[in-house]
Amino acid sequence: MANPIQQILAQLPAVDECLKWEALRTASETYSHQQLKDAIQTVLNQTRQRVLAGELDQLPAQTVIAATILDCLQAAQKFSLQRVINGTGTVLHTNLGRSVLSPAVQQQVEQTAFHYSNLEFELATGKRGSRYEHLTKVIQTLTGAEDVLVVNNNAAAVLLVLSTLAPQQEVLVSRGELVEIGGAFRIPEVITAAGGVIREVGTTNKTHLADYAAAFTDTTGALLKVHTSNYRIVGFTESVPLPELAALAKEKAVPLVNDLGSGLLLDMRRFGLPYEPTVKECLAQGCDVVTFSGDKLLGGPQAGIIVGKRVFIEQMKKNQLLRALRIDKMTLAALEATLQLYLTEDVALKEIPVLKMLAQTAEECRQKAEHLATLIKQAQLKLSVTVSPDTSAVGGGSYPEHLLPTFVVSLEADQTAEKLQTLLRSGELPIISRIKNERNLLDVRTIDESEFVPLVAQLKKIMNEPDL
Ligand SMILES: *Cc1c(COP(=O)(O)O)cnc(C)c1O
Question: Is the pTM of this model over 0.85?
Fold first, then answer.
């Protein structure tokens, strides 16, 4: 007698046989013959593997196999890039898409990207226009800049600025500012990639004005100041105040470039965050060129914004690199819509999700957490649910040391915290949690109240899955 495993395998249907199943008939209308065959093959192979591994002591029923084939077909149609719920509390979570756009952006993108637009066309004259002009006025108003240029991201902005202002020339930069930001962006390497030569000034913890002054030569092309967004040198430190640096740059007739990273348009002290200069203040203090991101604290789409003196920006507009770094019309539309909100500060605070999330007080977070916990408890799942105080991070390399007081809903199930975390990520609407003390935390700072119902529905689905 054949062994039991071989007996089960002998009963596995052939692909052609499955193709005739009634349960798959509607699928054959929706999917191509090849897609259907591939899905059947995949599921039959998986079933064969499970039998061989001793996981099944009989074949699943035909209806079960058919349902798995349908799931497989659906999964193949799913988008790779998808919406998730950010329960980590990190507002600018680089891996989860950084800033969340304002609903106000949607209509402007819809209007201009789904129809023809005056992207590079002057309506007044009927002549060819420039895509870069659309943002000039609003950014001038918000920052006081003479001129403006917008590119694909801030890394591109720094690259374009240095490649325009200091090709084959020395770029002076403090040793304490030769930083790496977000993994692949390293200031020394960007200077080199832009065709510049790094001239390190001062020491890691202390750089004086005299150090800069002594470093100037005939080949100095620019003085670069980098906002050390994602780390702090503490203790015995010193750096040169912007106005002094600006005066020196002016005396030597070399542009002072400031890579601000986040680039604040509003004073963040209102959110309980420590003081950092806004873009406007940096320009007023004498920076010739300032660069910053569109999708950090500004709360817009990925973009790199360059503001500063017209003589320098004009040169950048003529740089061939600009074509390779240029901003797309959807980004342009989203950025203009975001910036418009800033024209009225109260509107910005109400409409820009990043600012709204940062503005939530601990008490507001507590109320939100209690609400979410109640909804989860009402679902009567096999989960222990508690609310506790915790802290959230700003993220995106901004304010690395500063944590915001928040409240979290923590979940505990029969399985280990890691298993539950995987399960939370597994559904149609993945929920990204943070583990602390063997519990999965959902920080409500980054979960909008409108997401509570879908979140609980998702929890119900995953907690009621059989065999988990
Ligand atoms: C984030 C950051 C960058 C890179 O900006 P992207 O928009 O991510 O390209 C460059 N410089 C500083 C100081 C930053 O903080």
Answer: yes
